[in-house]
Amino acid sequence: MRARDLGLASCHTCSLLVRMPASGHVHCPRCGSPVHLRKPNSIGTTWALLIAAMIMYLPANLLPVMATTYLGNTQADTIMSGVIYLLHHDWPLAVIVFVASVLVPLLKILALLYLLISVQRRSPLRKAQRTRLYRVTELVGRWSMVDVFVVALMAALVQVGALATIEPGGGALAFATVVILTMLAAMSFDARLIWDEYGEHYGTAQQAR
Amino acid sequence: MNQSAPLDANPLELIACHECDTLHRIPELAPGRSAHCSCCGALLLHNPKGGLDRPIALNIAALLLLVLANAFPFMTLQISGREQTTTIIGASQALYEAGMAPLAVVVIITTLIGPALVVISSLYVLLGVRFRLPLPMLRSMLSWISHLQPWGMLDVFMLGVLVSFVKLAGMADMVMGPALYAFAALIVISAAAMSALEPHLLWQRLGLPGGQPHAR
Lengths: 209, 216
Prior knowledge:
The complex is a heterodimer. By secondary structure, chain A is an alpha+beta fold. Chain A has one domain: Butyryl-CoA Dehydrogenase, subunit A, domain 3 (Up-down Bundle), CATH 1.20.140. Helix content of chain A is 56%, strand content 13%. In chain A, a hairpin with a 2-residue loop joins strand 5 (66-70) and strand 6. Chain B is of the alpha+beta class. Chain B has helices at 53-71, 88-97, 101-130, 138-148, 154-169, 178-196, 199-206; strands at 14-16, 23-25, 34-36, 43-46, 75-79, 82-86, 173-176. The longest helix of chain B is centred in the middle third of the chain and has 30 residues, at 101-130. Chain B starts with 13 loop residues before the first strand and ends in a 10-residue tail after the last helix. Chains A and B meet through strand 1, strand 2, helix 2, helix 3 and helix 4 of A and strand 1, strand 5, strand 6, helix 2 and helix 3 of B.
């Protein structure tokens, strides 16, 4: 038995079950947050944020995240060249950074694409696995921020005049944008849509009007 | 789950899974136990050990460590007799000075403001509920905690510290500052503080505004 079948909605902030009125607009009596049967316009919002993230993914990986000037020579580093540098010095750390900064954003974008398309096609398959995929996607996303912190720390430390300086590059900003956009996209996706049966989407839309 | 049970008996016993909307009737959980969704496996409810006193103690410790971690130098870089020291705020400041104000804002929110707000609002709510104080904004503060939590990235920042250590070790001598030890402790304590606090239980204890019975 699912909450929506009984006309009940779970408050997303405090989990109180609230009986939905015909208007579809109600505030939680316990915490005051607006309550919806499903996150409003979840699919459209998630698509918008995800497409923005995919666009920003290109400059995030192509532009240098920092420029190192050491004894007069300047070298620009992208996310990938940073991973390759680490590979020569400390390979376990290189693997962690590769997973966090290269694989996780890419897989996160692919996972959200798959979730969105399968929900829109009303796929009845692998619902539990797709829910688990969503849960993992939401959990691991923040770890991609690691390279942004590396750039910030190195730029703060390596400011020793003519000897060595590190300047943050545009890629770092683009990269942080990708991480934030994918985090917001995962938050705006409503996993319960995976479980909604065919026809239920229309039912809600009519109720809301 | 019992389909024939009347819904209005006690709505707080009834919880819908946030990820698949399956209704569950949850008995009172013993301390340290948690309830998972029978349909998709998501965590429904957790009753941490130690009641309200443990998260209060952990959050006070986290607050002190947060102050220590920000008050002292974090790392020092020595290169040909010259030294450069940074703090947590210094990392964000460096981005700001390099003309990347938006990135500086992201870094300061994820490393300082976000975690600090989580700790302070957790303490505020916990003390309010524990000692039944009629504090203003108690409910909005509690609502904020779960929205703020994903944006605190102390653990991710620590990984960033490790990576920059390795990267800079080839170029200069790195010295760990006292703040780094406070920071390492802070990560452990704040993670423990977060798992010791279950917002659902606090909401249950708060009940409806004005102490009304839980009827709709």
